[in-house]
User: Fold this.
Amino acid sequence: MAVQTKADTFAALRDCFAADLAALIGDQSQRGATPTAFINLVEEVRDVLATSSIGNWQDASEDLDSAVTYLTDALTSPEGDQPSLLAWSRTHLRDAIETAS
Assistant:
């Protein structure tokens, strides 16, 4: 089995979650394909949900905050740490979308 690169894994996360995240805030604009652009989207959604008075959205914002931390750490971490950091970010992204929906 081939080892996925960090860029491939970020692309997979973006492909899986970007549309759902953007839909939560009604954003239809095109985003860049870089890991930084994806992290910026997650941060934007986190910030919008955090300012909501809806409890579920505030809870989802907390998961997105954790996801941002893991995604950012994965960009700068040694390669051995990246798979676990990206897996944790995926868990928080999935949980946030489920909670907010």
